[in-house]
Design goal:
The chain has no helices and ten strands. The protein has a domain at 9-76: SH3 type barrels. The chain starts with 8 loop residues before the first strand and ends in a 9-residue tail after the last strand. The chain has a six-stranded antiparallel beta sheet with strand order 6-3-2-1-7-8, with no helix packed on it. Strands 4-5 form a two-stranded antiparallel ribbon. With 105 residues, the chain is mainly beta.
Length: 105
């Protein structure tokens, strides 16, 4: 089970954008996530008339490693680690390590 999923509100805990909050736009692969408004780079892009792309320098978000982001806990207003707990009915849910609250509640 993935501890960080698409649509989660996360905080960057390491790197040049440390402290910034954003929403996970997508999982790039098993270990990388794309976070909205974080890790922006300037990319030199060639024009492509077939796709309707104009050339020039564009701002683009690049993926971050999942170890550099943590889930935002709305109760504590801080970044928090996530664990997985199995409920009595067999469902597996994500819980915050600090207070034991369910993430998907």
């Amino acid at each position: 089970m993935e501890k960080i999923r698409k649509g989660d509100d996360v905080v960057v805990i390491a790197g040049k954008d440390k402290g910034k909050r954003g929403t996970v736009l997508r999982r790039v692969d098993a270990e990388h996530v794309l976070v909205e408004g974080v890790n922006k780079v300037k990319k030199h892009q060639r024009p492509n008339p077939m796709k309707g792309l104009a050339g020039g320098i564009v701002d683009k978000e690049m993926p971050l490693h999942v170890s550099n982001v943590a889930l935002f806990n709305p109760q504590t207003k801080k970044a928090d680690r996530v664990g997985i707990r199995t409920l009595d009915d067999g469902r597996r849910v994500r819980v915050f390590k600090s207070n034991g609250e369910m993430v998907d509640a």
